[in-house]
Design a protein that fits this description.
The complex is a heterodimer of chains A (517) and B (947). Chain A has 517 residues and is α/β, with parallel strands linked by helices. Chain A is built from 23 helices and 16 strands. In chain A, helix 6 packs across helix 7, helix 9 packs across helix 10 and helix 17 packs antiparallel against helix 19. The termini of chain A are far apart. In chain B, 60% of the residues are buried. The chains are: A alpha/beta (517), B alpha/beta (947).
């Protein structure tokens, strides 16, 4: 019996993975081939999806991208051993995109059957929790502190410090909340874990609960991820059945259980306090801080709120030790980051690498430039509220501080590439439009400012009263940046101002960089 | 005079004892821990601009104009949501802050009507004030942008209008509805720029669950939500603080005026009873004072079938005096009497009873409290030693368990109900004992742990069963009982309640409640640790009303829930001055301060002061007056501010009594129902037109201040004084304060009270004397007023009013939010939009048995009488129970109620009447006849040429 891997990841499904699996199963039945089809997660090489892998003694051999109509030809060419077929990719591990990565967090993703606990354990799963139990709660927190792990949702706050705060906070109950409301354009790391390695998240959250004294966890998943929700629910059920969740986790003497909550369909629900409101059944409105959620979070109780990737990084840190994680990285950005390459890019997908790689290397070498084949003009880093980087800044190392120094942000690790046909004034307008569309409406700079921003941009695009409108735009961005309640309104000026700063020529035919300044 | 401007500190006080020192704009400031930077600055006199923050609501942080800079911290934190920290250095004015604030205000202005001169609030619009303070000079966004200028106004509510174009979505009104009022009728619909205030599910204010408490209107910083009276009359220019004349909560209001015209009534933040909150009645339903029905000239007539004849004050007074002297001459000194009003001031009430005792020369004085809370006086006096509630309202903030019995606070005491709900939302537990599923049983974010829907008339039984559980399950606070109560009386009581016949299992079937529920409620009440009892007329207006009050006092003593904050036995008083009218000696057997008329020393004190001998024998109670009238021995009655025909039970008995009298004098604002039987009508003055004091349910004495001259020419006490003079007993008061001085001289519990003292303290709770110069918020601390607390046996005796084949249902009556008592005031306001007729609540099962559908006319009959009204089919009442209100004279619910009354005080048994309900086509014959009588007896003859 030969094991065949065809991803169940949404990206692969969107490319026809289910149809490929069906076609292959039908062919196997018809021809009496002994094939076992495993629906794995994605390796994150989306240009190769559906990527069909064959398990061989020499490792996994890949074929892709496979369309359903390719299946008959593959079989005819000798599949599962068809090295001469045009779709044959050879050993998957040798594909450069994959080979260059440092896969800590995504080590299992695409390799294992996501809903097989045995597979998970066989690939190092639950070693992290076991070590945490042996270390004790306080030392577990210290281990996370030492790893240098920072919040992967965007703010980059040290995860261990946050856990320590919750651990020391007093409350009738404590909660662990996973933010999987992955709303940034061009990001998919959270989804890939949930669909490809859900136990990693469960283990990470369980370690957090053990470390901070929480007994209940919630995973807030955006409603646009039905497959992820299904996978998480199935995995939680399996973990509960195996005593890995429930009243006595891993017979370690502590209780923890998890619940998946479907998001309310708003970008701002990914803002941690709005997410708490939404989890509590209220409208997704941002709460003012303080109080910090670590002191008064979900239902007013001390709560650990982390991005999914932060939690999913924890099992590795505990299993391999903080040092193994902290040994890689750059400056104060330790460990690895699953960078998501999207937009107009040739090799789109997920690329986990230690901090420090340059932006240019990521776009040009890893991503292979644009899909359209035209020159790269701009990259938006860190989601819809992130700055646009021109080629001139491609030397920027991928690192929280280095990006911040150039008025950019790493955010959740998304990079969206644009070629030279992009109109940056329209992109600036889009930033305001996005803010207007997604604003919760609580604070004034965001609620009214975003609409006025669109109007000012429209006037600029129409060439009306350029210098006055540019001055107004700058004032507005200043008001939004400093005045907004949360990052939604506070970061909307970043794409706007970066577009204006780096691409002034797009802001009107008569503009000169000097005049724009 | 100017408008009173209360300082808005932006956020509520922190209430912490620990102090934190910080620096604000170079000045060192010390404030309680957890105080917001905004409040700390305001307290230090540093104004930080703000829009969404107001000190009645928790900080929200949405407007972004109160930003500050803190040295060493990044960003510009909002000062409202950022608490102080030791040693921080705060700057409230920097260039960066100015730029952002101006930027925010420019955004606000870009979506706001710019015709400031047409703004109803004018300069009081906080948006304009802040815009000016941050130096906004221009709006550069142009006028063709997206705005809310075209959004439709919501003018559905009769009292206030909502103009979304002027709304800045600060959520203050939404938060006020939630935090202050607790109704949760308002929300923000839409998101982002589309965010807008929505009443209910965008159904408009009138159709929504909004209770028109006015908290939102008050909270609105702009003129998006504004009183229609302000739109019509313009902004007020001066204000006077006074006390509401509706229920016993006693809300303090600023009467905001233009000249002698009231523009609006705004709850006063420093009011100790209401802390700046209000309900629809006090806030909006004051227009009756100017209603065209108001009678401003005295009138007399020989017979009640004659039309009224307008006369001068001199003639009316002389005529009345002559008639009373004639009657006394013919039928004896005891043939006349007076009724004081719980609607009038302490001073007026005191004066009426003085008139009766000193000028009439008998003790035939009684008060409407007879028909509401007289059992409270009896019950609490005999157990604790004082005829009054034990706590202040603020005490509820310390309560862990509330036992609400026979009260419907959300309708009858709405402002206090909001306080209760706030405390319940914060985690206090609730037990409701009531035949009806009142709103408090389940309302947004509040749900009673236990609701005991007892059969009407079984209060004593259920309270005995609760006591049984407390005694037999060892839940008695033995240390408290040993130290503070009479041991022998306790032992007898404990033995009594422990008897098996008082067990929940035995009592459950009697009152129709699951015994397990009674046990659970008893355990919760006993568990406390702070358990407070709140009750209303559902306890007192029974044949065993006094027994029930005693039973409640027993429970409080047995569990040690008395004598400190957060506990106690608290009557919720129905009318504004029920407490006061009782305090002032309105009952026939008591002089002011609850001293018996038969007590020689007390009488001697009054005789010396009043320079007349006083009769040692108690006079007639109200129902006895009617009996005596029918017997021919009681012929003259002076009724100040009470409508006994509509409010007293067994209307036929009342009207028969009045019809038998030879001179009935009614002093009132309107030709009320009782005036139909009157021979003299003396126009009354409204609470806006007089000086005096009211005493609320928590014994709080508050000033009523005259904001306009009496339209009828005299304050009510002046009329009483004129009548006394005409009777040959001249009085010489020149101001109500002099009456209070006399009260203080003659009444030990009021010894420290004077208008000057009230001006100084704002209000004071009696006892106020040398021992308690600042008054007494919580009574019986350290010891009971009577010494040791006394347990009294409370044997349950079923009322004689029993259901049977002819009258198989039990009727109970009550009040609704928008109307007040007999409705004389509220029916003359737009409140009738919500409740323009009395409805009969009937359970679907009982309705179906009788073929009654929602809205059908039904005949409601008891052995006393019958009336007709329309049915409301609802599960709020249990099967076998029907319920109605008594606000409308067309219905006259009291035609149905019987003459049964409390054994101790004659308080009528309004709450239990056996009735039958049947379909009908319309009003009964009696109603038609009565309505005809009303028209005939209200005729006023045209003024003769001579006048």
């Amino acid at each position: 019996m030969t094991r065949i891997f065809i991803p169940r990841d949404s990206a692969a499904l969107a490319c026809g993975a289910d149809e490929v699996a069906e076609a292959l199963a039908a062919q196997a039945r018809a021809r009496g081939l002994a094939l076992e089809i495993v629906r794995n997660g994605s390796r994150g090489m989306f240009w190769l999806e559906p990527l069909v892998e064959v398990e061989t003694p020499a490792g996994r051999i890949g074929y892709g991208p496979v369309a359903p109509e390719d299946v008959a030809g593959l079989i005819a060419a000798g599949f599962p051993a068809a090295p001469a077929h045009p779709l044959a990719l050879g050993p998957v591990a040798e594909i450069a995109f994959l080979k260059r990565q440092t896969r800590f967090t995504f080590a299992r993703c695409g390799l294992t059957d996501p809903l097989s606990l045995a597979d998970y354990r066989a690939h190092g799963g639950y070693r992290g929790l076991a070590r945490a139990l042996s270390l004790g709660a306080a030392e577990t927190v210290e281990e996370v502190v030492r790893s240098g792990l920072r919040g992967r949702g965007g703010a980059g706050f040290p995860t261990g410090v946050k856990w320590k705060t919750v651990r020391e906070a007093r409350g009738a109950r404590k909660y662990v909340v996973c933010n999987a409301d992955e709303g940034d354009s061009g990001t998919f790391a959270d989804r890939m874990i949930m669909e490809g390695d859900p136990f990693a998240l469960i283990e990470g959250m369980t370690i957090a609960a053990f470390a901070t004294g929480a007994a209940k966890g919630y995973i807030y998943v955006r409603s646009e991820y039905p497959d992820a929700i299904a996978a998480m629910n199935a995995a939680i059920g399996l973990a509960r059945g195996a005593g890995l969740l429930g009243p006595d986790v891993m017979a370690g003497g502590f209780a923890f259980d998890l619940e998946v909550r479907k998001g309310a369909g708003s970008y701002v629900c990914g803002e941690e306090t709005a997410m708490l409101e939404s989890l509590e059944g209220k409208r997704g409105m941002v709460r003012a801080k303080p109080p910090l959620p670590a002191h008064k979070g979900l239902f007013g109780q001390p709560s650990v709120i982390n991005n999914l990737v932060s939690f999913a990084s924890v099992p590795f840190i505990l299993a391999e030790g903080a040092k193994a994680y902290a040994d890689v990285g750059f400056g104060r950005s330790r460990g690895t980051m699953p960078i998501q390459l999207a937009g107009n890019i040739r090799h789109g997908g997920l690329y986990e690498i230690a901090f420090g790689v340059s932006l240019g290397e990521l776009i040009d070498e890893v991503g292979g430039g644009t899909a359209s084949g035209r020159p790269v003009r701009a990259v938006q880093a860190g989601g819809p509220l992130g700055a646009y980087f021109p080629r001139a800044l491609f030397d920027t190392p991928y690192d929280y501080e280095a990006f911040a120094a150039r008025d950019g942000l790493i955010g959740h690790g998304g990079l969206v590439v644009f070629d030279d046909t992009v109109d940056m004034a329209r992109q600036a307008r889009f930033a305001m439009e996005f803010c207007a569309l997604e604003s919760c409406g609580k604070c004034t700079p965001c609620r009214i400012g975003s609409v006025r921003g669109m109007e000012v941009m429209d006037r600029l695009i129409a060439g009306e009263n350029r210098s006055a409108n540019l001055a107004l735009l700058r004032d507005l961005c200043n008001t939004m940046k400093w005045g907004s309640l949360c990052a939604m309104g506070g970061f909307t000026p970043y794409p706007v101002m970066s577009a204006l700063t780096h691409f002034p020529e797009d802001f009107g035919p008569h503009s000169l960089p000097a005049a724009a300044e | 005079m100017t408008l009173i401007h209360e300082t808005d500190f932006g956020t509520p006080p922190a209430g912490s004892a620990a102090m934190v020192r910080l620096t604000i704009d170079g000045a060192s400031v010390s404030v309680p821990e957890a105080t917001s930077i905004l409040r700390a600055a305001m307290e230090a006199g540093v104004q930080i601009p703000k829009l969404c923050a107001t000190d009645s609501l928790n900080a929200f942080g949405s407007c972004r104009v109160c930003l500050v800079e803190i040295e060493g911290r990044g960003g510009l934190p909002a000062s409202c949501t950022t608490p102080v920290a030791p040693g921080i250095v705060v700057h409230t004015q920097t260039e960066r802050l100015s730029a952002v604030r101006r930027g925010v205000m420019e955004l606000y202005a870009s979506d706001h009507p710019r015709d400031w001169f047409s703004d109803p609030k004018q300069g009081a619009n906080e948006l304009f004030q802040v815009a000016a303070s941050v130096g906004l000079r221009e709006v550069r966004y142009g006028s063709d942008g997206c705005t809310h200028g075209a959004a439709a106004k919501d003018e559905s509510n009769p009292y206030f209008a909502f103009d979304p174009a002027r709304c800045i979505v600060c959520s203050r009104y939404v938060r006020a509805c939630e935090e202050t009022q607790g109704t949760y009728a308002l929300t923000i619909a839409g998101r982002g720029f589309d965010s807008r205030v929505s009443a209910g599910m965008e159904e408009g204010f009138l159709a929504s669950e909004c209770v028109s408490c006015g908290a939102c209107v008050q909270a609105c910083p702009t003129s998006a939500l504004i009183e229609k009276s302000v739109i019509a009359q313009g902004m007020p220019e001066h204000s006077v603080v006074t006390t509401c004349a509706y229920c016993g909560v006693g809300c303090a209001f600023k009467a905001e005026m233009r000249g002698e015209q009231v523009v609006r009534m705004v709850p006063w933040k420093d009011g100790k009873a209401n802390h700046g909150h209000s309900c629809i009645k006090g806030r909006f339903a004051w227009g009756y004072a100017n209603h065209r029905d108001r009678i401003l000239n005295p009138m007399v007539r020989a017979k009640i079938t004659d039309p009224w004849r307008e006369v001068s004050w001199a003639e009316a007074i002389a005529h009345t005096a002559a008639e009373f002297r004639r009657i006394q001459g013919k039928y004896g000194r005891g043939s006349v009497g007076g009724i004081t009003s719980s609607r009038c001031t302490n001073e007026e009430t005191f004066l009426v009873q003085k008139l009766v005792r000193a000028a009439f020369g008998n003790n035939n004085v009684d008060t409407c409290a007879r028909v509401c809370h007289s059992p409270t006086g009896y019950g609490l006096k005999n157990t604790f030693g004082t005829s009054a509630g034990t706590q202040d309202f603020d005490s509820v903030d310390q309560a862990d368990v509330m036992l609400v019995i026979g009260a419907n606070p959300t309708d009858a005491h709405p402002v206090f109900a909001s306080r209760m709900k706030r405390r319940l939302r914060a985690g206090a537990k609730l037990i409701v004992i009531d035949p009806r599923r009142i709103d408090l049983v389940r309302t947004p974010h509040v749900e009673a742990q236990y609701h005991l829907p007892i059969r009407p008339g079984t209060n004593v039984a259920v309270l005995d069963a609760i006591a049984h559980v407390i005694v037999t399950e060892g839940l008695v606070d033995e240390a408290f009982v040993r130290e503070r109560c009479e041991g022998e009386a306790f032992r007898r009581w404990a033995e009594f309640v422990a008897e098996a016949r008082n067990s929940p299992e035995a009592i459950g079937p009697v009152c129709g409640v699951d015994p397990g529920l009674i046990r659970a409620a008893a355990r919760l009440y006993a568990a406390g640790p702070n358990s407070a009892i709140y009750y209303g007329l559902g306890v007192t207006e029974h044949s065993q009303g006094s027994t029930s009050v005693i039973a409640l006092a027993n429970l409080a003593m047995a569990t040690g829930n008395i004598g400190r904050e957060g506990v106690g036995v608290n009557p919720l008083r129905g009318q504004n001055n029920v407490q006061g009218s009782c305090d002032m000696g309105s009952f026939p057997h008591e002089l002011s301060g609850y001293r018996h008329i038969s007590d020689g020393a007390t009488r001697a004190l009054f005789e010396a002061a009043w320079k007349v001998p006083l009769d040692a024998e108690p006079g007639l109670r109200i129902p006895n007056m009617f009996d005596a009238a029918v017997d021919g021995s009681f012929m003259g009655l002076y009724i100040q501010g009470e409508d006994i025909v509509q409010s007293d039970p067994d209307t036929h008995h009342v009207t028969a009594g009045l019809a038998a009298m030879e001179c009935v004098v009614v002093q009132d604002l309107f030709l009320n129902e009782t005036a139909q039987f009157a021979h003299v009508f003396l126009p009354g003055s409204s609470f806006l037109e007089k000086d005096g004091t009211f005493t609320n349910a928590e014994r709080r004495i508050q000033l009523v201040r005259r904001v306009m001259a009496p339209k009828n020419g005299y304050e009510d006490w002046e009329v009483t004084q004129m009548l006394a003079g005409a009777l040959g007993y001249p009085m010489h008061y020149t101001h109500a304060r002099e009456i209070m001085d006399e009260i203080a001289r003659l009444t030990p519990t009021f010894a420290g009270v004077s208008f000057a003292r009230l001006e100084e303290l704002g209000s004071v709770q009696w006892p106020c004397n040398e021992q308690a110069p600042e008054g007494t918020p919580v009574m019986h601390m350290g010891g009971f007023v009577r010494g040791k607390g006394r347990f009294l046996i409370t044997e349950y005796v079923p009322t004689d009013e029993k259901v049977g084949p002819r009258f198989p249902l039990l009727l109970t009556t009550g009040r609704i939010l928008t109307q007040y008592n007999v409705g004389a005031q509220t029916r003359r306001t737009d409140n009738s939009l919500w409740h323009d007729e009395d409805l009969l609540e009937i359970h679907p099962q009982d309705a179906e048995d009788r073929g009654i559908r929602e809205g059908d006319w039904v005949k409601l009959a008891s052995r006393a009488g019958a009336t007709s009204l329309r049915a409301k089919v609802t599960e709020r009442v249990a099967p076998g129970v029907v319920y109605t209100t008594f606000h409308h004279p067309e219905t006259q619910a009291n035609v149905i109620t019987t003459d049964y009354s409390d054994w101790a005080t004659n308080c009528p048994e309004y709450k239990v009447t056996a009735v039958q309900v049947s379909p009908t086509n319309g009003p009964t014959e009696w109603q038609e006849h009565y309505s005809e009588l009303g028209r005939a007896t209200r005729r006023i003859a045209p003024a003769s040429a001579a006048e």
